[in-house]
Design a protein that fits this description.
- The chain is 33% helix and 29% strand.
- The protein is built from 11 helices and 14 strands.
- The strands form 3 sheets. A 6-stranded mixed beta sheet has the order 6-7-8-3-9-10, with helices on both faces.
- A hairpin with a 2-residue loop joins strand 1 and strand 2.
Length: 329
């Protein structure tokens, strides 16, 4: 549904060029939720502006569905943008308008008849759980409620794609959970393709099917959540499933292993299985177990005695779907 190919954006500042996006290539399948994560200055906001063609890319292409946007006329681009809903960090509501009037604003811009617009607004407010607040002004709403208004407004023109630029960074943890649940529920109900721009790893864990790491204008890692987590040593893997810290007591001279596994393997009694099968002690240094998306993942760091049969234990673990990385003791 969203296809970005070799996208570059270069700004001219004085006598020098500033490269904001440097060859970004990305594909987000229809009906999925994809997260773009990166630190401030990585190019996330520039990418959003280029996806909507608010900023024209220096080179490369952006396609939504089967329409390549970077080469269409201004009139065609305006029509294409109606199929893209945009959710902002701070909702960007008009203070002088009620909840219903804010949601109706995009419909007014495209000349929707008043009766049809009123019906559509009522449907959207019910969909986001704000039908009782139609006449409230933004100042009378909580942060989470304002963000729900922003989501309803983004859906007013029946988009196929929902772009969310830091949609939860201004919200408290409980409200963040509610908004992410709402976004996922809307994806399922309306068949939306969702792209979430964020710097919060929790958002990726909670809501996304796939993720890309953007750094200095480049995508340095990308893939389905299950695949990137299962990649030992990967930066996304370490960020999504970090170890909480190593225990101070370690066995002298024994090998240290990082174990990464998911699905059926995550339900296995790995430590006791090694101890029984190979008649050896196992020292657990650190561990993390989480549900990411629909799957359970585990990351353990263990230390074995120097007398343990490392090759046999590694082969056994690998045969059971567990990725093993040997660390320095």
């Amino acid at each position: 549904m969203i296809t970005v190919t070799d996208l570059r954006k270069v700004y001219r500042q004085g006598d020098r060029d500033v490269v904001a996006l440097d060859g970004v290539t990305l594909r987000v399948p229809k009906g999925s939720v994809h997260g773009i994560i990166g630190h401030s200055g990585a190019g996330k906001s520039t990418l959003v502006r280029c996806l909507t063609l608010l900023d024209r890319p220096t080179s490369g292409s952006v396609s939504i569905g089967d329409r390549e946007l970077s080469s269409v006329s201004d009139a065609e681009l305006r029509r294409a943008r109606r199929r893209i809903g945009m959710v902002f960090q701070h909702a960007n509501l008009l203070d002088s308008r009620t909840t219903a009037q804010n949601v109706a604003f995009p419909l007014e811009l495209v000349g929707t008849p008043k009766q049809e617009a009123a019906r559509k607004v009522a449907e959207l407010l019910k969909l986001v759980g704000l039908d009782r607040f139609a006449d409230a002004y933004p100042s009378q709403l909580s942060g989470g409620q304002r963000q729900r208004v922003g989501i309803a407004r983004a859906l007013a023109t029946d988009p196929d794609v929902l772009l969310c630029d830091e949609p939860t960074s201004a919200l408290d943890p409980a409200t963040t959970e509610e908004i992410l649940d709402l976004i996922k529920a809307l994806r399922d109900r309306l068949g939306l393709t969702v792209l979430i721009i964020t710097h919060e790893m929790h958002v990726v864990k909670r809501a996304c099917d796939s993720v890309s790491l953007l750094e200095a204008g480049r995508i340095v890692e990308s893939g389905r959540l299950a695949d990137v987590v299962a990649s030992p040593g990967g930066r996304l893997s370490m960020a999504l499933l970090p170890l909480p810290g190593e225990a101070p007591e370690v066995l002298p001279g024994g090998p240290v292993l990082d174990l990464l596994y998911s699905g059926d393997a995550a339900a296995m009694p790995v430590i006791s299985g090694i101890a029984r099968r190979f008649d050896t002690d196992v020292n657990v240094l650190a561990g993390s177990v989480e549900h990411l998306g629909e799957a359970q993942f585990a990351h353990l760091r263990i230390q074995l005695p120097s007398s343990a049969d490392l090759a046999a234990i590694t082969a056994h673990l690998t045969a059971n779907g567990i990725a093993v990385t040997t660390k320095e003791a």
